Amino acid sequence: MTLEELNQLPEPAFVQALAHIFEDSPQVAQAVACQRPFASLEALHQAMVAVIQSWSAAEQLALICAHPDLGARVKMAPASVAEQAGAGLDRLSPEQFERFQRLNQTYRARFGFPYVVCVRQHTQESILRDYEQRIGNHPTQEQARALAEIAHIAWFRLQALLPSAPCPPSASQGTIDPSGEGGGCGD
Fold first, then answer.
1. 5-20 tens-digit pLDDT
2. Active-site positions?
3. Could you say which DSSP state residue 36 is in?
4. Residues with Cβ < 8 Å from 115, sequence gap 6 or more?
5. pTM metric for this prediction
6. Cα(82)–Cα(51) distance, rounded to whole angstroms?
7. How many helices (H) and strands (E) does the chain have?
8. What is the DSSP letter of 165?
9. How far apart are the C-alpha atoms of 53 and 151, rounded to whole Å?
């Protein structure tokens, strides 16, 4: 699908096409449907992130809580399954699985929501280091970090859905990177 095709879809089909971008939150796509047409993938991403930023703290917390624990052996959205598999989290040894479960439990006990990280930017080892660094954060700081990670995840999901979407002129020069971590248009 192209961005032009996405822009031209009837609203229900547009929402359905983007429903998975933010974990189990099709209301994000619903909220931006009236802003079409989007000139670039970045514009679509920014509009979707703005919706999340406009939500109450309780709505943001619900979005964070919609994400699965890393390495968990539970039913997940197909996008989460693929992303975790890409980092090898579907092939953990019993010892690695136990370590991830302990960290998931410690993190949830401290913050009240799951640890969220854009696994496409990590290895198993860097995820474990990140867990251990973030566990000392203040809860407000960690909620903001989780939302930033969700925005990164959404950026990669949009790129996967619309790989040929036009980027703004400066993005082709590598200066625009909505994910903040590379992997944007032109990278």
1. 999 999 999 999 999 9
2. 67
3. P
4. 69, 70, 103, 104, 107, 108, 131, 134, 146
5. 0.81
6. 25
7. 9, 0
8. -
9. 10
